[in-house]
Design brief:
Blueprint lengths: L3 E7 L3 H12 L4 E4 L6 H4 L30 H14 L4 E2 L4 E10 L2 E8 L3 E9 L6 E2 L12 E2 L12 E5 L3 H12 L3 E5 L14 H10 L3 E3 L3 E5 L3 E6 L2 E6 L2 E4 L3 E2 L2 H7 L25 E3 L14 H4 L1 H15 L2
Parallel strand pairs: 1-2, 1-6, 2-3, 6-17, 8-15, 9-10, 9-15, 10-11
Antiparallel strand pairs: 4-5, 5-6, 7-16, 12-13, 13-14
Helix pairs in contact: 1-8
Length: 330
Protein backbone atom coordinates (compact mmCIF):
# COMPACT_ATOMS: atom_id res chain seq x y z
CA UNK A 1 0.00 0.00 0.00
CA UNK A 2 1.32 3.44 -0.96
CA UNK A 3 2.32 5.47 2.09
CA UNK A 4 3.96 8.57 0.57
CA UNK A 5 1.96 11.31 -1.14
CA UNK A 6 2.68 14.85 -2.16
CA UNK A 7 -0.51 16.00 -0.40
CA UNK A 8 -2.66 14.50 2.33
CA UNK A 9 -6.12 16.02 2.72
CA UNK A 10 -7.69 15.65 6.16
CA UNK A 11 -11.46 15.58 5.81
CA UNK A 12 -13.69 13.99 3.18
CA UNK A 13 -16.44 16.61 3.05
CA UNK A 14 -17.32 18.70 -0.01
CA UNK A 15 -14.28 20.98 0.41
CA UNK A 16 -11.92 18.05 0.99
CA UNK A 17 -13.30 16.47 -2.19
CA UNK A 18 -12.84 19.77 -4.04
CA UNK A 19 -9.18 19.73 -2.97
CA UNK A 20 -8.84 16.16 -4.23
CA UNK A 21 -10.22 17.11 -7.65
CA UNK A 22 -7.83 20.06 -7.82
CA UNK A 23 -4.93 17.73 -6.97
CA UNK A 24 -5.96 15.45 -9.85
CA UNK A 25 -6.21 18.44 -12.18
CA UNK A 26 -2.64 19.40 -11.31
CA UNK A 27 -1.37 15.80 -11.52
CA UNK A 28 -0.27 15.88 -7.88
CA UNK A 29 -0.37 12.68 -5.83
CA UNK A 30 -2.79 12.87 -2.90
CA UNK A 31 -4.81 10.93 -0.36
CA UNK A 32 -7.99 11.99 1.45
CA UNK A 33 -8.39 10.73 5.02
CA UNK A 34 -11.90 10.86 6.52
CA UNK A 35 -12.72 9.71 10.03
CA UNK A 36 -16.33 8.84 9.15
CA UNK A 37 -18.33 8.11 6.04
CA UNK A 38 -18.14 10.10 2.83
CA UNK A 39 -19.25 13.72 3.47
CA UNK A 40 -19.76 12.68 7.07
CA UNK A 41 -21.23 15.98 8.27
CA UNK A 42 -23.86 16.05 5.53
CA UNK A 43 -24.78 12.46 6.33
CA UNK A 44 -25.58 13.49 9.91
CA UNK A 45 -27.87 16.33 8.83
CA UNK A 46 -31.61 15.74 9.43
CA UNK A 47 -33.01 13.34 6.85
CA UNK A 48 -35.55 15.88 5.54
CA UNK A 49 -33.18 18.86 5.45
CA UNK A 50 -33.24 21.30 2.55
CA UNK A 51 -30.16 23.43 1.88
CA UNK A 52 -30.25 27.20 2.04
CA UNK A 53 -28.03 27.34 -1.06
CA UNK A 54 -29.09 26.48 -4.58
CA UNK A 55 -27.63 23.33 -6.10
CA UNK A 56 -25.31 25.16 -8.51
CA UNK A 57 -23.53 26.79 -5.55
CA UNK A 58 -22.73 23.38 -4.06
CA UNK A 59 -21.04 22.06 -7.19
CA UNK A 60 -17.39 21.02 -7.19
CA UNK A 61 -15.05 20.06 -10.03
CA UNK A 62 -17.35 21.71 -12.62
CA UNK A 63 -19.74 18.77 -12.27
CA UNK A 64 -23.37 19.92 -12.61
CA UNK A 65 -25.56 19.32 -9.56
CA UNK A 66 -29.10 18.69 -10.79
CA UNK A 67 -31.82 18.68 -8.13
CA UNK A 68 -35.62 18.46 -8.29
CA UNK A 69 -35.93 21.98 -6.90
CA UNK A 70 -33.65 25.00 -6.81
CA UNK A 71 -32.58 24.17 -3.25
CA UNK A 72 -31.44 20.54 -2.97
CA UNK A 73 -32.18 18.13 -0.16
CA UNK A 74 -29.76 16.22 2.03
CA UNK A 75 -30.36 13.00 0.07
CA UNK A 76 -29.74 14.73 -3.25
CA UNK A 77 -26.47 16.17 -1.96
CA UNK A 78 -25.30 12.76 -0.73
CA UNK A 79 -26.07 11.29 -4.15
CA UNK A 80 -24.22 14.13 -5.88
CA UNK A 81 -21.01 13.82 -3.83
CA UNK A 82 -21.08 10.00 -4.12
CA UNK A 83 -21.32 10.36 -7.90
CA UNK A 84 -18.46 12.87 -8.02
CA UNK A 85 -16.29 10.60 -5.85
CA UNK A 86 -17.01 7.60 -8.04
CA UNK A 87 -16.66 9.36 -11.40
CA UNK A 88 -13.31 10.89 -10.49
CA UNK A 89 -12.14 7.76 -8.66
CA UNK A 90 -11.13 9.92 -5.70
CA UNK A 91 -8.34 8.37 -3.62
CA UNK A 92 -10.02 8.38 -0.21
CA UNK A 93 -9.80 6.27 2.93
CA UNK A 94 -13.01 6.31 4.95
CA UNK A 95 -13.34 5.62 8.67
CA UNK A 96 -9.68 6.44 9.19
CA UNK A 97 -9.16 9.23 11.71
CA UNK A 98 -6.06 11.42 11.67
CA UNK A 99 -4.66 11.45 15.19
CA UNK A 100 -1.48 13.44 14.79
CA UNK A 101 0.49 15.50 12.27
CA UNK A 102 4.23 15.57 12.98
CA UNK A 103 6.83 17.66 11.21
CA UNK A 104 10.13 16.04 10.28
CA UNK A 105 13.38 17.47 9.01
CA UNK A 106 13.75 18.98 5.56
CA UNK A 107 14.33 16.52 2.72
CA UNK A 108 15.97 18.42 -0.12
CA UNK A 109 13.97 21.63 -0.51
CA UNK A 110 10.80 20.24 1.07
CA UNK A 111 9.71 19.45 4.60
CA UNK A 112 8.06 16.11 5.20
CA UNK A 113 5.12 15.40 7.48
CA UNK A 114 4.32 12.15 9.22
CA UNK A 115 0.56 11.55 9.52
CA UNK A 116 -0.50 9.14 12.25
CA UNK A 117 -4.01 7.73 11.83
CA UNK A 118 -6.21 5.16 13.53
CA UNK A 119 -5.04 2.63 10.92
CA UNK A 120 -1.48 3.52 9.95
CA UNK A 121 1.18 6.10 9.15
CA UNK A 122 1.72 8.18 6.01
CA UNK A 123 4.37 10.61 4.78
CA UNK A 124 3.60 13.68 2.72
CA UNK A 125 5.08 17.02 1.69
CA UNK A 126 1.94 19.11 2.15
CA UNK A 127 -1.13 18.82 4.40
CA UNK A 128 -4.57 20.32 3.81
CA UNK A 129 -6.90 20.32 6.82
CA UNK A 130 -10.57 20.56 5.78
CA UNK A 131 -12.32 19.22 8.86
CA UNK A 132 -15.37 21.50 9.05
CA UNK A 133 -17.12 22.19 12.33
CA UNK A 134 -19.89 19.60 12.83
CA UNK A 135 -18.04 17.24 15.13
CA UNK A 136 -18.16 18.91 18.56
CA UNK A 137 -21.52 20.16 19.89
CA UNK A 138 -21.82 23.01 22.34
CA UNK A 139 -22.84 21.41 25.62
CA UNK A 140 -25.48 22.75 27.98
CA UNK A 141 -23.43 21.88 31.07
CA UNK A 142 -26.51 21.08 33.15
CA UNK A 143 -27.50 18.10 35.31
CA UNK A 144 -28.93 15.26 33.24
CA UNK A 145 -27.33 16.21 29.93
CA UNK A 146 -25.61 12.82 29.89
CA UNK A 147 -28.93 10.91 29.87
CA UNK A 148 -29.69 8.78 26.79
CA UNK A 149 -32.83 10.86 26.14
CA UNK A 150 -30.66 13.87 25.20
CA UNK A 151 -29.22 14.33 21.71
CA UNK A 152 -27.27 17.09 19.99
CA UNK A 153 -27.85 15.49 16.57
CA UNK A 154 -31.45 15.48 15.37
CA UNK A 155 -32.16 13.14 12.46
CA UNK A 156 -35.55 11.56 11.80
CA UNK A 157 -38.82 13.10 13.09
CA UNK A 158 -40.80 9.83 13.12
CA UNK A 159 -38.77 8.66 16.12
CA UNK A 160 -40.43 11.35 18.27
CA UNK A 161 -44.05 10.71 17.27
CA UNK A 162 -46.54 11.12 20.17
CA UNK A 163 -43.76 11.97 22.63
CA UNK A 164 -43.10 15.02 24.81
CA UNK A 165 -40.12 16.74 23.18
CA UNK A 166 -38.11 19.76 24.31
CA UNK A 167 -36.07 21.53 21.63
CA UNK A 168 -33.33 23.88 22.86
CA UNK A 169 -32.35 26.65 20.45
CA UNK A 170 -33.88 28.99 17.88
CA UNK A 171 -31.72 28.66 14.77
CA UNK A 172 -32.23 26.50 11.67
CA UNK A 173 -31.52 23.12 13.29
CA UNK A 174 -33.82 23.82 16.24
CA UNK A 175 -36.61 25.18 14.05
CA UNK A 176 -36.44 22.23 11.66
CA UNK A 177 -36.54 19.77 14.57
CA UNK A 178 -39.48 21.54 16.20
CA UNK A 179 -41.57 21.76 13.03
CA UNK A 180 -40.84 18.27 11.75
CA UNK A 181 -41.41 16.46 15.05
CA UNK A 182 -44.60 18.49 15.63
CA UNK A 183 -45.91 17.38 12.24
CA UNK A 184 -45.25 13.75 13.14
CA UNK A 185 -47.37 14.07 16.26
CA UNK A 186 -44.86 15.10 18.92
CA UNK A 187 -45.84 17.52 21.69
CA UNK A 188 -43.11 20.13 21.22
CA UNK A 189 -41.79 22.80 23.56
CA UNK A 190 -39.00 25.16 22.48
CA UNK A 191 -36.60 26.72 24.98
CA UNK A 192 -35.04 29.87 23.51
CA UNK A 193 -32.28 31.89 25.14
CA UNK A 194 -33.20 35.11 23.31
CA UNK A 195 -36.48 36.91 22.78
CA UNK A 196 -37.26 35.67 19.25
CA UNK A 197 -36.61 33.03 16.60
CA UNK A 198 -33.13 33.49 15.10
CA UNK A 199 -32.69 36.05 12.34
CA UNK A 200 -30.67 33.60 10.20
CA UNK A 201 -33.46 31.00 10.04
CA UNK A 202 -34.33 30.12 6.43
CA UNK A 203 -36.71 32.75 5.10
CA UNK A 204 -39.27 30.21 3.88
CA UNK A 205 -39.33 28.46 7.28
CA UNK A 206 -39.35 31.41 9.69
CA UNK A 207 -43.02 32.39 9.16
CA UNK A 208 -44.03 28.75 9.64
CA UNK A 209 -42.45 28.37 13.07
CA UNK A 210 -43.63 31.81 14.20
CA UNK A 211 -47.20 31.01 13.20
CA UNK A 212 -47.13 27.61 14.91
CA UNK A 213 -45.94 29.30 18.10
CA UNK A 214 -48.53 32.08 17.78
CA UNK A 215 -51.40 29.63 17.40
CA UNK A 216 -50.12 27.51 20.30
CA UNK A 217 -49.39 24.34 18.31
CA UNK A 218 -45.78 24.59 19.49
CA UNK A 219 -45.12 26.02 22.94
CA UNK A 220 -42.12 28.34 23.18
CA UNK A 221 -40.40 29.87 26.21
CA UNK A 222 -38.33 32.90 25.22
CA UNK A 223 -35.64 34.47 27.41
CA UNK A 224 -35.46 31.04 29.01
CA UNK A 225 -32.94 28.28 29.71
CA UNK A 226 -33.08 24.57 30.40
CA UNK A 227 -31.74 23.94 33.91
CA UNK A 228 -32.19 20.27 34.78
CA UNK A 229 -33.01 17.11 32.84
CA UNK A 230 -34.47 14.04 34.56
CA UNK A 231 -35.77 10.72 33.24
CA UNK A 232 -39.37 11.91 32.92
CA UNK A 233 -39.19 15.68 33.46
CA UNK A 234 -37.22 18.85 32.75
CA UNK A 235 -36.87 22.11 34.66
CA UNK A 236 -36.88 25.40 32.74
CA UNK A 237 -36.03 28.87 33.99
CA UNK A 238 -38.45 31.27 32.30
CA UNK A 239 -39.10 35.00 32.49
CA UNK A 240 -42.11 34.21 34.70
CA UNK A 241 -40.26 31.83 36.99
CA UNK A 242 -39.32 28.13 37.03
CA UNK A 243 -41.40 25.60 35.10
CA UNK A 244 -41.33 21.80 35.29
CA UNK A 245 -42.53 19.85 32.25
CA UNK A 246 -43.24 16.22 31.53
CA UNK A 247 -40.60 15.12 29.02
CA UNK A 248 -39.49 12.10 26.99
CA UNK A 249 -36.74 13.55 24.79
CA UNK A 250 -34.48 16.61 24.61
CA UNK A 251 -33.07 17.82 21.29
CA UNK A 252 -30.27 20.26 22.17
CA UNK A 253 -29.79 22.15 18.90
CA UNK A 254 -27.16 24.40 20.45
CA UNK A 255 -24.73 24.43 17.53
CA UNK A 256 -21.30 22.97 16.86
CA UNK A 257 -17.69 24.05 16.95
CA UNK A 258 -14.56 23.16 14.96
CA UNK A 259 -11.83 21.00 16.44
CA UNK A 260 -9.43 23.85 17.10
CA UNK A 261 -7.60 21.80 19.71
CA UNK A 262 -6.38 19.55 16.88
CA UNK A 263 -5.01 22.60 15.07
CA UNK A 264 -3.24 23.82 18.20
CA UNK A 265 -1.80 20.38 18.83
CA UNK A 266 -0.43 20.46 15.29
CA UNK A 267 1.25 23.79 16.03
CA UNK A 268 -1.06 26.05 14.03
CA UNK A 269 -1.32 29.57 15.44
CA UNK A 270 -4.78 30.87 16.40
CA UNK A 271 -5.87 34.42 17.14
CA UNK A 272 -5.94 35.37 20.81
CA UNK A 273 -9.53 36.64 20.82
CA UNK A 274 -12.69 34.60 21.39
CA UNK A 275 -13.04 33.74 17.68
CA UNK A 276 -9.71 31.81 17.77
CA UNK A 277 -9.35 32.27 14.04
CA UNK A 278 -6.38 30.40 12.49
CA UNK A 279 -3.63 32.71 11.25
CA UNK A 280 -3.43 32.23 7.48
CA UNK A 281 -1.77 33.72 4.44
CA UNK A 282 -4.86 35.26 2.77
CA UNK A 283 -3.57 34.54 -0.73
CA UNK A 284 -2.72 30.87 -0.21
CA UNK A 285 -4.48 29.68 3.00
CA UNK A 286 -1.11 28.45 4.27
CA UNK A 287 -0.75 28.46 8.05
CA UNK A 288 2.24 29.57 10.11
CA UNK A 289 3.64 26.08 9.45
CA UNK A 290 5.03 25.99 5.89
CA UNK A 291 3.33 23.20 3.97
CA UNK A 292 0.15 23.02 6.09
CA UNK A 293 -2.97 24.65 4.64
CA UNK A 294 -6.57 25.05 5.81
CA UNK A 295 -9.66 24.85 3.61
CA UNK A 296 -13.34 25.39 4.25
CA UNK A 297 -15.21 26.39 7.39
CA UNK A 298 -12.26 25.56 9.68
CA UNK A 299 -10.60 28.77 8.39
CA UNK A 300 -13.13 30.88 10.30
CA UNK A 301 -12.35 29.53 13.74
CA UNK A 302 -15.34 29.86 16.08
CA UNK A 303 -17.11 32.07 13.53
CA UNK A 304 -18.79 29.15 11.79
CA UNK A 305 -21.36 31.32 9.98
CA UNK A 306 -18.87 33.12 7.75
CA UNK A 307 -17.79 30.29 5.45
CA UNK A 308 -19.92 27.74 3.61
CA UNK A 309 -19.48 25.29 0.76
CA UNK A 310 -20.27 27.94 -1.84
CA UNK A 311 -17.65 30.45 -0.69
CA UNK A 312 -15.01 27.87 0.32
CA UNK A 313 -14.70 25.99 -2.97
CA UNK A 314 -12.17 28.60 -4.13
CA UNK A 315 -9.81 27.53 -1.34
CA UNK A 316 -8.84 24.42 -3.31
CA UNK A 317 -7.68 26.48 -6.29
CA UNK A 318 -5.74 28.93 -4.10
CA UNK A 319 -3.98 26.16 -2.23
CA UNK A 320 -2.97 24.14 -5.26
CA UNK A 321 -1.75 27.19 -7.12
CA UNK A 322 0.70 27.63 -4.25
CA UNK A 323 1.59 23.94 -4.01
CA UNK A 324 2.16 23.74 -7.78
CA UNK A 325 4.49 26.73 -7.70
CA UNK A 326 6.44 25.31 -4.78
CA UNK A 327 6.70 21.91 -6.43
CA UNK A 328 7.96 23.45 -9.67
CA UNK A 329 10.67 25.36 -7.80
CA UNK A 330 11.65 22.50 -5.50
Amino acid sequence: MQSHFSVIIVGGGPIGLACALEAQKNNISYLVLEKGCLVNSLYHYPVNMTFFSTSDRLEIGNVPFVSNNAKPTRNESLEYYRRVTKNFDVNIHLFEEVLQVNRSQMTGNERQFHIQTSKGTYICNHVIIATGFYDIPYLLHIPGEELPKVTHYYSDPHFYAFQDVVVVGAMNSAVDAALETFRKGARVTMVVKGDAIGSRVKYWVKPDIENRIKEGSIKAYFNASLKTIREREVDIDTADGPVTLKNDWVIAATGYQPNLDFLEKTGIELSKDEVRCPVLNPGTNETNIPGIYLAGVICGGMNTHRLFIENSREHAVMIFNDIRQKTQHA
